[in-house]
Amino acid sequence: IERGQVLAKPGTIKPHTKFVGQVYVLTEKEGGRHKPFFNNYRPQFYF
């Protein structure tokens, strides 16, 4: 199984393509980003 794949019993899960989430971005002092986000910035998230 690779990143992005799911192993489940048939019929037990429903695939989704959209979700709502909340992200906390670390400050520079916390070891996070040093530069601001710009319009149309599209970071990658892995679950």
What features would you describe in this structure?
- There is one protein chain.
- The protein has no helices and no strands.
- The chain has a domain at 7-37.
- The chain is elongated, with a radius of gyration of 16 Å.
- The chain is mostly loops and 47 residues long.
- The model has no long low-confidence stretch (mean pLDDT 90).
- 0% of the residues are buried.
State the helical fraction. Answer: under 10%
How many E strands?
0
- Individual helix count: 0
* Biggest sheet overview: none
Q: What's the overall geometry?
A: elongated
- Intertermini distance: 14 Å
Mean pLDDT: 90
Kindly estimate the percentage of residues that lie in beta strands according to DSSP. under 5%
Rg from Cα: 16 Å
Low-confidence stretches: none
Summing up helix and strand content along with how strands pair, one would put the structural category as little secondary structure
